[in-house]
Amino acid sequence: MSFDRLQDKIDALGNPSVCGLDPLPEHIPPGVMQSHIAEKGETPEAAADAYFEFNRGLIDALYDIVPAVKPQSAFYELLGPRGAEALKRTAEYARSRGMYVILDAKRGDIGSTAQAYSEAYLGAVRIGASEYAPYNFDAITVNAYLGSDGVVPFLETANRNDKAVFVLAKTSNPSSGELQDIDIGGGRRVYTAVGDMAAALSSDSVGRRGFGRAGIVAGATYPAELRILRERLPHTFFLVPGYGAQGGGAGDVAGAFLRGGGAIVNSSRAIICAWKKTGAGGADYAEAARREALCMRGELRAAVMD
Amino acid sequence: MSFDRLQDKIDALGNPSVCGLDPLPEHIPPGVMQSHIAEKGETPEAAADAYFEFNRGLIDALYDIVPAVKPQSAFYELLGPRGAEALKRTAEYARSRGMYVILDAKRGDIGSTAQAYSEAYLGAVRIGASEYAPYNFDAITVNAYLGSDGVVPFLETANRNDKAVFVLAKTSNPSSGELQDIDIGGGRRVYTAVGDMAAALSSDSVGRRGFGRAGIVAGATYPAELRILRERLPHTFFLVPGYGAQGGGAGDVAGAFLRGGGAIVNSSRAIICAWKKTGAGGADYAEAARREALCMRGELRAAVMD
Questions:
Q1: What is the CATH number of the domain that holds A164?
Q2: Contacts A182 to B, Cβ<8 Å
Q3: pLDDT (tens digit, 9 = 90+) per residue, B199-236?
Q4: Quick check: A246 pLDDT over 90?
Q5: CB contact under 8 A, B116 and A179
Q6: Which of the residues A68, A74, B91, B282 has the least number of beta carbons within 10 Å of its own beta carbon?
Q7: pLDDT digits (tens, 9 = 90+) for B95-145
Q8: Inter-chain contact B110–A85, Cβ cutoff 8 Å?
Q9: Is the pTM of this model over 0.95?
Q10: Among residues B40, B88, B106, B276, which one is catalytic?
């Protein structure tokens, strides 16, 4: 099962973290960006090639110490069709290095539309008698505002292809409580109802490591809610954003873990933009990312695995 | 203002409807698909070219009677980077025919990520000293599960570029009530709270025709909730899915309108797959779509404009 592979990989590397690959033009070391602009002009082609080169360098620097990467779809979509190419190449390269690859896309739709999203990122499309798998991610983030109709098609595709899903329960941003914290009676809130839904929809797919195919997203910036969710959901894998740049620390994420497992903590800018703090102008971006990832690994080990 | 243009166009054509451009391989007339497969094989390139040819034919058949089109992003994403090309070409072609073009993408994220999504579809990205506008849609659908943090960046980009946003309030699917109908006290439910949020966030952008820049999505399949939302939100433009194939009729959508305006009703498969009912094997797909669109126009006029 998909989360068995993820938990095994986390254990093998002793590191429950995932690096967010969230490129923007200003995140790319100037030397990398300029070399592609020199070749292809100030075009989306040049930026997409720069994103991929940057990601490849990060993956090469991280794959033996970090189990997973999480590209954020928005930043690739911002380059249009060329960005989709960069996303595809990034997913393929990370997979070739043995990493678990999560697409952060927060898709949410129903029926044939949800099926199309899920097949796009976790499955394949049939064209004539041929099959084409556009991206082949290991997992995708999903928004459940539309109810279980918006989650079930993703789980069906995940089941067929041995992939996984992370449903947004409690997000890390300041206004996340506006809808998610609404008290719905019986000691429940909207975010616990979503967590319960994810657990209920995947109770029949619990794998060797103890987790169903529908994980949840729960932010490091709300440690009390993280603990509430963890207590309710003993068979749910947690993806935890909000660590580092957004303010969550290692102590804040501890509540997401269960016997030292069952969660993976994301950091994006702190790792991929670590080069901005070294004074070397970006030439050392891969080494700077590796140092930062090792530092995060140490913090997480101390807080949750020791 | 963006919704001034949309309402003017609706009035000029006497037709408050939008055609969903939701291609799947099985929706494309076999002759169109086969000609591209003959040229490029059973590849995403061939399918993407077939999608664009199909859409162009639909747009040519509809632009003088239907004010808007709404591509559903999922179906293009399912073809990977080639699908993004087909989406871009479709948006450009519809705009060249004077149509208002809504991207149904239901994006929802926060901070720089939400900004990236909004700039991708409503704005532009800066690469070096150049600007690149990947898609340039008139409006996009947005999911507010993350709270106002997930909506404000879209509205800021929409304001800068004179575009618009539709926030999902009450969706048309069977399970939409699981979260959206939760009673939050004071006579409010989650879907009315989202509607109120959209209205509050755009109360300072009400245009000549009386609508703020944040519209909402409210399904034809829930006519009672449509009326509740319309009563609460006199300055909000409504995008109404669920007409036709999903079961909503012209009488069901009447409650979304305000003095004959303020709403646009979507139909996708009933129009784009009308060719499947004529027995001509798809050669007449454009004419069949036009006939169906005229039939819908007549139904809507009788129910809401007369």
A1: 3.20.20.70
A2: 182, 184, 190, 193
A3: 999 999 999 999 999 999 999 999 999 999 999 999 99
A4: no
A5: no
A6: B282
A7: 999 999 999 999 999 999 999 999 999 999 999 999 999 999 999 999 999
A8: no
A9: yes
A10: B106
Nearest CA in chain A to B79: A134
Q: How many CB atoms lie within 10 A of CB A31?
A: 12
Question: Containing domain of residue A47, as a range?
Answer: 2-305
**B107:A72 CB<8 A:** no
Closest CA to B201 of B243, B142, B156, B135: B156
Per-residue pLDDT of A165-190, as tens digits, reads 999 999 999 999 999 999 998 899 99
* B197: closest chain A residue by CA: A178
- Would you call A170 a catalytic residue per the annotation? no
Mean pLDDT of chain B: 96
Q: CB distance from B145 to chain A under 8 Å?
A: yes
From the list B33, B117, B127, the residue facing A47 with the nearest CB is B127
B188-212 burial, b at 16+ Cβ within 10 Å, e below that, comes to ebbbbbbbbbbbebbeebbbebbbb
How far is the C-alpha of B118 from the C-alpha of A77, rounded, in Å? Answer: 10
Assembly ipTM: 0.97
Both tokens assigned to A209: 């490591």
Nearest to B55 by CA among B88, B77, B82: B88
Q: Which tokens hold the place of B65?
A: 């009677």
More confident residue, B78 or B184: B78
d(CA B240, CA A274): 46
CA of B55 vs chain A CAs: smallest distance (Å)? 18
Asked if A178 and B148 come within 8 Å (Cβ–Cβ), the reply is: yes
B179 vs A171: CB contact, 8 Å cut-off? no
Residues of A in contact with B78 (CB under 8 A): 116-117, 119-120, 125, 134
Asked if A92 has any chain B CB less than 8 Å from its own CB, the reply is: no
Residues of chain B with Cβ-Cβ distance to A149 below 8 Å are 173-176
User: What are the φ/ψ torsions at residue A31 (nearest 5 degrees)?
Assistant: -65, -40
Residue of chain B whose alpha carbon sits nearest to that of A192? B179
For residue B98, the 8-state DSSP code is T
Q: Who among B82, B109, B120 is closest to A78 (CB)?
A: B120
d(CA B289, CA B291): 5
Residue from the list A41, A81, A149 with its beta carbon closest to the beta carbon of B175: A149
Total structural domains in chain A?
1
Chain A interface includes B168 (CB < 8 A): yes
Write out chain A in H/E/C secondary structure.
Answer: CHHHHHHHHHHHHCCCEEEEECCCHHHCCHHHHHHHHHHHCCCHHHHHHHHHHHHHHHHHHHCCCCCEEEEEHHHHHCCCHHHHHHHHHHHHHHHHCCCEEEEEEEECCCHHHHHHHHHHHHCCEEECCEEECCCCCCEEEECCCCCHHHCHHHHHHHHHHCCEEEEEEECCCHHHHHHHCCEEECCEEHHHHHHHHHHHHCHHHCCCCCCCCEEEEECCCCHHHHHHHHHHCCCCCEEECCECCCCECHHHHHHHCECCECEEEEECHHHHCHHHHCCCCCCCHHHHHHHHHHHHHHHHHHHHHC
- Burial state string for B8-17 with b = 16 or more CB within 10 A and e = fewer than 16: ebbeebebbb
